[in-house]
Amino acid sequence: QVQLVESGGGLVQPGGSLRLSCAASGSIFSIYAMGWYRQAPGKQRELVAAITSGGSTRYADSVKGRFTISRDNAKNTVYLQMNSLKPEDTAVYYCNADVSPQLGYVYRDYWGQGTQVTVTS
User: Fold this and answer.
1) Are the C-beta atoms of 8 and 21 separated by less than 8 Å?
2) Rounded Cα distance, 82 and 33, in Å
């Protein structure tokens, strides 16, 4: 009953910036955690950044200092500001959210469709 719609991916040169967004819609009472994962060819999916409803964040070591995750709880939207992009950041980026549909209900995990980020000169 929950959909995550991502936008903002594209092709940029090394050193450039992109801002990804992910809006959740559907049967939503609350969202505890939202995050971004990525998967590059030949590699396993990895956590890029995550943020809780209270604002606690965590980042992959490879993106610390370059990426910033934020969220707008009123809009059920999470953002990923990506600066100083490197070719190694090239991957499909997936949005993830832990969603409760009603007060007292267990949270469930949802995923977006993925958006391609390509960093090349």
Assistant:
1) yes
2) 19
